[in-house]
Amino acid sequence: MPHGSHRVRVQTKRNRTMSFSTIAEETRLPIAEVEHLVMKALSLNLIRGSMDQVDQKAQITWVQPRVLSRTQIGDLAKRLDGWVNKLNKVEQRIAPEVVQ
To answer: Which is it for strands 57-63 and 17-19: parallel, antiparallel or unpaired?
Structure first.
């Protein structure tokens, strides 16, 4: 893919149609390069779906799952633990106020 790897959040299962402008914004690519990006992703079987060049929209029906290394999984677990700890601290701070 051009400019390295790009990640685009595909909304919900119900809303998988994305405008080229949204894809451009999410990937930080010029809108003129979005069609090529989508065609390349389709040809590499990274995504499945269709593209409407006239309306400048892409409908995504499937996305290749991302595979994480053990190191990435470990880092993710640490970040999630840190997040849980922060949430617990917030809960401890606001719990007395909620009880009243």
So the answer is: antiparallel
User: Do 57 and 23 share a structural domain?
Assistant: yes
pTM: 0.56
Considering its fold, how many domains does the chain have in total?
2
In a domain, 76, yes or no: yes
Gap between the Cα atoms of 22 and 38, Å rounded: 12
Asked if 57 contacts 42 with a C-beta cutoff of 8 angstroms, the reply is: no
> Which domain CATH number covers 22?
1.10.10.10
Distances, alpha carbon 46 to alpha carbons 38, 52, 66, 91, in Å:
9, 18, 10, 41
Comparing 67 with 29, the larger pLDDT belongs to: 29
Does residue 40 surpass a pLDDT of 70? Answer: yes
DSSP for 37-56, please give it: HHHHHHHTTSEEEEEETTTT
Domain around 37: 17-63
